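Support request, please re-run this one:
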Amino acid sequence: MTRKFLLSPQLLLLALLFVSVCCTIAIAQDDGDGAWSKKKSAWLLLSAEQRDQVKDFNEDYKAYLNVARTALGSTREVMRRAKSAGFTQFSDPKQVKAGARLIVPNRDRSVILVVIGSEPIIDGSHVVGTHHDSPHIDLKGRPIYPAHGFALFKTIYYGGIKKYQWANIPLALSGRIDTTDGRTIDVSIGLNPGDPVFVIPDNAPHSDSELRNRTYEDVIKGEELDPVAGSIPGEKDSVVAEVANALAGKYKITEEDLVSSELALVPAASPADVGIDRGLVGAYGQDDRLSSFCAARAVMDVKGTPRYSAFAYLSNFEEEGSVNNTGASSQFLSSTFARLIGAQRGTSYSDLDLRRALHNSQAISADTNDGVNPVFPNTSERSNAARLGFGTTIKLYGGAFNGTSEYTARLRALMDKNGIPWQTHTYKVDVGGGGTIGRFMSQEDMDVIDMGVPLLSMHAPYEMSSKVDVWNFYRTMSLFYLQ
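Re-run finished. Output below.
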């Protein structure tokens, strides 16, 4: 026999009130206690005029991302924009005067933009250091090989990526080829309308039973990241020869010239707004061309002469440890300081001037960070994790990577005074982690703090950022340059 239990209106009201209180408590615990629970989404702090500024800034950001698919492409685009903004390439010590706007490139793969301040560089400077390389897939030196009637590209992946994410998406080939007769040939296939693309084929579910026991990281292995390069055989029944001949004819090269090339496979998809409300930017390479764009744009937008020289430093190879002569572990930044100080000091310049200048420098090591994922929230340390839409992130890694407390307080005060929302980010202990080029600037005796904005799907072929965070990070850098 089934019995029915009926609640009186009074008991029903009490039950609903109880559920409401429990939900409120859960939300408060979820977002943290005290002052942190009062933090509002940065979107709610915007005026109508600022919303328009956010929109316009991110349209420009997407335009940059669409062409800056590699460090080479980013350097080229940043230099183009800088020249349009009145910057000139540094070649003569006489250029180093208060208010001068200078470009210091490094082998086409990293670059420094600087606005010379009214104070001597030895007395201080403001540096924003970023990296504009992103995870991608490189072609090997002898990349074209036959495989069951196809020609494939043999590759080696670059940076910390989940390899399975690169399968079944359209890829473009971008980079350069340098020949023994001194030519440099820019390569771009797959980014323009009508271009062919390249695709890494995954196995169909109809025949993949022997692959299904692979672990999360090995769904596709490194040696399997080989895209289709061609499928039509020539008269001698060789697809490989046809692909090699097509490349040779298009770029006037030999197959051996591919040994002296830097060719990267990158996602071919264009940047786009994400969501009905268009609140997010979806694009490849936001780690860390987001910070690079903000730093470059902020220094280009400096009006007049700042008190202290403002540097935007876009480095390379961070995803592999900042190695090589264009990475942040090189002497490029300190050598640029030496050249500029030497121009100011003349024959009286000594190494002590460089040491003093670096000691007096204040730096932001800018890089994106992993934001709380709404599908996998438990992978974040919720009380200390950054959320999209809540502003600039102060990154507190622990392990001696943090900025000093007094320098952190100085940046907090700058943002508070100017109404810039900010938050913090620390990964779960023994679970996640990160780091960027700040340690290399710290080794030069600079004051350094790590800052950024959170991303969804970080280190993926298509990452997402909040437009309001991107704009606020730009504002943070702009104010920092003018301190």
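The chain has two domains: 43-134+284-481, 136-267. Confidence is low (pLDDT under 50) at residues 1-5, 18-31.
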